[in-house]
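Hypothesis: this fold can be encoded by more than one sequence.
Test: take the structure tokens below, design a sequence, compare later.
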């Protein structure tokens, strides 16, 4: 799946998580929501607003992940809560794919 990036250390999990996050952040923009609803996929992909909104989402993702990681590294209670959340999601994913 991940043929977009050259770094061999990046996995499908990295790529999928990144794409999901960037799409969700960009999807928060009402301009993009309205354009997606009003246009075909081809028209939407040609939107002059799509590129700058996706770039903004990319930079937001970078900063937000850094902020969240720093908080988790400094707060054992937050880290424990995250472990519980991710552990449940991971267990569900791994056991439902049998």
């Amino acid at each position: 799946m991940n043929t977009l990036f050259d770094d061999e250390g990046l996995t499908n999990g990295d790529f999928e998580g990144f794409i999901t996050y960037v799409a969700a952040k960009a999807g928060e923009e009402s301009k993009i929501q309205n354009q997606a609803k009003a246009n075909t996929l081809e028209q939407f992909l040609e939107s002059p607003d799509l590129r700058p909104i996706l770039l903004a989402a990319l930079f937001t993702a970078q900063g937000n992940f850094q902020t969240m990681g720093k908080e988790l590294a400094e707060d054992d209670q937050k880290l424990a809560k995250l472990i519980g959340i991710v552990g449940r999601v991971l267990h569900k994913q791994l056991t439902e794919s049998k």
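The mean pLDDT is 92. The longest helix spans residues 50-74.
Hypothesis status: open.
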